[in-house]
Amino acid sequence: MNQAGLGSIARLRAVQTRSISPENFDGAAGGGGRATEGTGAACARDLGPGWKISPSVDIAPGATFELAAIDGPGQINHIWITTHTDNWRTMLLRAYWDGADEPAVEVPYGDFFAQGWGRFAQVNSQPIAVNPHGGFNSYWPMPFRSGARLTLENLSTVEVRVYYQITFETGGDYADAGYLHAQWRRSNPLEDLTPHTIVEGVEGQGQYVGTYLAWGVNSNGWWGEGEVKFYLDDDEDFPTICGTGTEDYFGGAWNFDVPGQGYTEYSTPYLGMHQVIRPDGLYVSQQRFGMYRWHLPDPIHFGHHLKKVDVQALGWRAGWRYLPLRDDIASTALFYLDRPTARRPRTPSVDDLEVHLGSAPVPDIGAQPPRPPA
Q1: Considering its fold, how many domains does the chain have in total?
Q2: Where is this region: Disordered (predicted)?
Q3: pTM score > 0.90 for this model?
Q4: Do 103 and 190 lie in a common domain?
Q5: CA distances (Å), 155 to each of 151, 158, 164, 181, 317, in order?
Q6: Which of 36, 58, 91, 364 is in the most buried spot, having the most CB atoms within 10 Å?
Q7: Are 131 and 138 in contact (CB under 8 A)?
Q8: Same domain? 163 vs 22
Q9: Where does the chain have alpha helices with state H?
């Protein structure tokens, strides 16, 4: 994946670093801090250009904003972005590689950063870091050969203010690198006796590198006995990789239950169960969880076909028998592929994305209080 780490950080490379933000929309060399208008202009009225004139952008309801348009070969190495929590499930993040008409990445903004429930939960992992209060960071390498385009669509009924910075390199050789893909699916509720599909029908060579699940439990009792299965290449009825349980796949054990503490959050470089939303005795009646697994030291390679990845939802019934569940499961799958497009699910609607945490009614989805520039 050509991401520089401690072992290679001292190696000299003939590449150039560029950065796109509202202070330098095209990432041009020497192009930063030149703005004369923007969301911070009034705050800098006594200071003039160079003093945080354009730190953010406002995206109108229903509009799609182009975060970045890059020509030529390169690789995005870091994305920092933030907006109000109410907007985390009302915006779609997309990435297009090498002039493709269809996105390789199409994921709700919050879910891409393991924040599918619209509530902050710290993530301390290698490719994704989420810091107080909503500082989203991605270190997934995003190589491309002739160009890249990143967009953010506002599906809400209100204007959304977004702050962002996208750091990339140019001048390298990315001919042997795969393209990053990210896909989102939701089962709400899960059909009876049917696993939740995380990804399916992807043709080409590549490696599967990450799973995030926003799991809403719709019944009492333990919910994570289900296995995660990977159907690769020529697999048909049975998978090549089959785990032993949901909490096992995410590196936990025994129901994530520390005796005396119950469900216990954890966040590590490669895996975590970083979010537990507990009932509040009023509107929040069911438990909600956020879990991630990044296959960085253990990518799952496929030669010509990623047939399917799915997860069962299983609890327990009387007599030590499994109980198939009908939970609310939203998944984000990340993989690298030898081509810039792949079979993908339909674009989710606002209703598909809506988070049901039982809060009291509010006038507008995505409404936010006035806020000065960050």
Answers
A1: 2
A2: 22-41, 344-374
A3: yes
A4: no
A5: 13, 9, 19, 22, 41
A6: 91
A7: no
A8: yes
A9: 109-112, 246-249, 350-353
Q: How many CB atoms lie within 10 A of CB 120?
A: 17
Domain that holds residue 283: 179-348
The pLDDT tens digits for 265-312 are 999 999 999 999 999 999 999 999 999 999 999 999 999 999 999 999
Side chain identity at residue 287, one-letter code: Q
What the block records as the tokens of 222 is 């333990």
Q: How far apart are CA 39 and CA 54, in angstroms?
A: 5
- Both tokens of 200, joined, read 């399916």
Does residue 204 sit in the same domain as residue 318? yes
Give the Cα separation of 20 and 26 in Å (integer): 6
| Same domain as 191, residue 126 | no
Task: Convert the pLDDT of each residue in 121-133 to its tens digit.
Answer: 999 999 999 999 9
Q: What share of the chain is helix, strand, coil (3-state, %, to 5)?
A: 5, 40, 55
**Number of neighbouring beta carbons within 10 Å of residue 316:** 13
Length of the chain: 374
Residues facing 20 on adjacent strands: 166
> Coil, helix or strand for 53?
coil
